Amino acid sequence: MGGNISRDPPDAHLQHHQHHRHNSTSSPSSMTRKSKSPTLRNSKSNSVNEEKKVPAVKPDKRIIYGRAYHAIESSSYMLPRDDKEIDRLHEEHFVTKELLGFNIMIEALKTLDFQNEGLKVLDVCCGPATWLCETSLEYPNCRFTGIDMCSLWPQVIRPVNLTFTEANVLQGIPYPDKSFDFVQLRFAVLAFRSNEWPFIISEIKRVLKDGGCFQCVELDMRIITTDPIARTYTEAFESFCASYGLDASAGAKLDLLLTEGGGMKILQSEYREVPLGWGGPIGDAYIQIFQGTLDGLSPWLKQSLEVDGFVSDFESGADDDIVDYKPNNRAKTKSKKTTKTTKSKKTPPTIPTESVTTTTKNTLIHHQWDEKRTAVLAGKYPDTYWKFNADVPQSHMIKSINEKSPLTSIPCTITDQGPITSMTLSDDGTLLVTYSSTGAVKVYDIQDNFHLIRKLRDTDEKHIDEFYCGAFAPDGLLAVGGKLKDRYRWSDDDADNHILPCDIKIFDVCENKLVARLKGHKEEILSIKKVIFMGQNYFVSTSQDGSIYKWHMAEDWKTLIKSTKMEDDITCMAFTVSFLPNTGNKYFIAATDEHLRLFDFEQAKLLQTFSSINSSYCDCAKFVNWLDEKAYQTTDNNSKYAWLISRGAEMCDLSEGVSSKPNTCTLHKLIYPTKTQQGFKLEQIKTYQHDEYHANSWLVKITSNGRYLLAPTIYGQIFVFNMLSGQVTAILKEHQDMEIRDVIFHPYRPLIFSCGDDGCVKVYTYKSNVEQHQNNQILAKN
């Protein structure tokens, strides 16, 4: 759902359009305003409660399958006009208000003085007038008018400053030019055919005063899903709308209609992504609202689609959609396998995790490493990694996870209205940041009961922001990245707004403002990392366009000195990076495509490729300090080495739609060369797998405290593997049955954080800590 404010040239009109979809995709809404005029406002002579009637015969009702519908032949509106529909519209108003956080956008309140000026407000297609009743009581000095072709509004009891007009707006709005200071239109996507929208907009512009505001809340009725059953019904619904000349995606295109057709300039925009059947009370309410819409349309759905149980069948399909939701994965045009990875509830064959056989991965050497240079850097710039792990006595981080040390979730409210893709902890461990597709970054105080202290948003961004990742820098700076979508351009290939070049945006968290941009990536930014190399400041970022950039920053971490793209013309998608221990940050491993690639950070060159780690995508790789390596009998102890964990997604069996092999996490041993002409060796030491571990989705991260590996699944679980034994010691389940995207250990507190597509962050600690806290509270009360 979204909204924006736009400014018109003199003598033009202001329009505001908001739009929300029943899925993870988002689209814009706009609000525009024209320049103020010193002319006096006209007033009408209607009495306060006078109900204006146009000279037309009031249409009769039609009773179809026991429900009342209008009988106006010129209107394509097919929803009922009975008490059941009024209840649905009431609920839609309150849920939408909760989602947006307002009845009137802030820029309209700044532009127009609703408290004192006695403004005239018109609500077009007002329905049962829920919005009008609320706002007319909130602003008693204004005069409110509702217009609709059916009189569903309160007939006896209503605010004294509220009147109604019964009329079909397709025959024109029955008021003179420049009559209203503020006009609203919302939830009209099923009311007007595609060729009727221009006339409706022109009528609204005609009755809007100079300096007035037009607010429009609109829906994109499409549901984007990868589930084949749910997709069948959503495609059928779109075809049904098209057969009646309706555009189910009209809400996504209104900005184009308003700006290109009306020459308006966007001044402010807001949008919201709406979960459908998931994500908490909002998602639960919206699935009921949407099902109520289908129920109201059922006479025409049954006739058009020749089905009897569309609504009930859709409900079962919606349940499948909840399980199968993923971030939108656009088709790539590069020479990369495009077979889609999907998840499956079928049990794959088991791989014994006790195996001690090591496998050396196929490798391709592109450039040679610099042994002498590496030794100098490692000596001068020692690693600062792994200050805290499960064996550090003074640290209180989670050290054991098993039957003797069970974990439980802490009651807290860390949520968003869209999927939360990842999280970041501040260097001192006091702040938690979440990144989601709602266009805002949220900052929580871990020390103050996880209180929300900042909501960062680029208020000057005219297009649609989605944030996926970020990294803290000194002095309260936060670099964030994600996806930027064109508010005015639609991509049929993506079934979403067109992708734009994606900048890294640097925010000052204390000042709550954007202070810098880093331009370079063409598509979604998937990870950002802060790096110190030779005493200099850098960010390194990866992208869905396949590029990896290093950004040399000045001492203030805001001023860019130089950006350099890694020399690599073969990668299609780059996910995460992790720097090799004991190399002075000269080298890093990147999870790219289905491979692991080794880069020289200093020279910005691809050094080596370890091929086919996964059959589809290898989306996460991290170096870890394996605490129990001495208990594992290894060979070639004279060589330098590092331990690396990875995970990914597998190709699917197209005949059954299941992954071609089981999902696993892997422990690798990266053996450093002893001579310049040699390459690194990557040995597969252990695989971590379980019959119930299903994780065939990409853009997912794993983590470790040096003893346990935490592996999220697509069903809201976190599998806890003992890295030495390979056994599952616990399964944490607090999320809904959806993908968990990220999981992290707190470095010195007994906390674990996880986030996922249900829009929630779950916080875990030892069960004994929670019980002790509860006992202390009881004692304090006594």
Explain this structure to me?
This protein is an alpha+beta fold and 782 residues long. The chain has 2 domains: 2-324, Vaccinia Virus protein VP39 (Rossmann fold); 329-414 and 628-782, no CATH class. 18% of the residues lie in helices and 34% in strands. The chain is built from 10 helices and 45 strands. The strands form 10 sheets. Strands 1, 2, 3, 4, 7, 8, 9, 10, 11 and 12 form a 10-stranded mixed β-sheet that branches. It has a 5-stranded antiparallel β-sheet with strand order 13-38-37-34-33, with no helix packed on it. Strands 14-32-31-30-29 form a 5-stranded antiparallel β-sheet, with no helix packed on it. Strand 16 and strand 17 form a beta hairpin. Helix 5 (228-243) crosses helix 8 (310-324). The longest helix is centred in the middle third of the chain and has 25 residues, at 281-305.
Brief digest:
This protein is α+β, with helices and mostly antiparallel strands and 782 residues long. Helix content is 18%, strand content 34%.
Largest sheet: 10 strands, mixed
What is the count of helical runs?
Answer: 10
> What fraction, in percent, of the residue positions are helical?
10-25%
Strand tally, please? 45
Key phrases:
alpha+beta, 10-stranded mixed beta sheet, repeat, Methyltransf_25, single chain, 782 residues, 5-stranded antiparallel beta sheet, Rossmann fold, 10 helices, 34% strand, SAM-dependent_MTases_sf, disordered N terminus
